[in-house]
Amino acid sequence: MENPTASAQVADRTEQLPLASQWEKGRLIGRGTFGSVYIASNHDRETRALCALKEFELLPNDPNSAECMMQLKQEIEVLSQLRHPNILQYYASEIVEDQLNIYLEYAHHGSIDKYIQEHLGAPTELAVRNFTRSIVTGLAYLHVNNSIHGDLKGANLFVDASGIVKLADFGIAKHLTGQAAYRSLKKSLNWMAPELIQSLMANDNSADLDPTADIWSLGCTIIEMVTGKPPWSEYERDPVIFKVMRSLPPIPETLSAEGKDFLHCCFRRQPAGRPSAAMLLEHAFLQI
Question: Which of these is catalytic: 151, 160, 169, 214?
Answer without folding.
Answer: 151
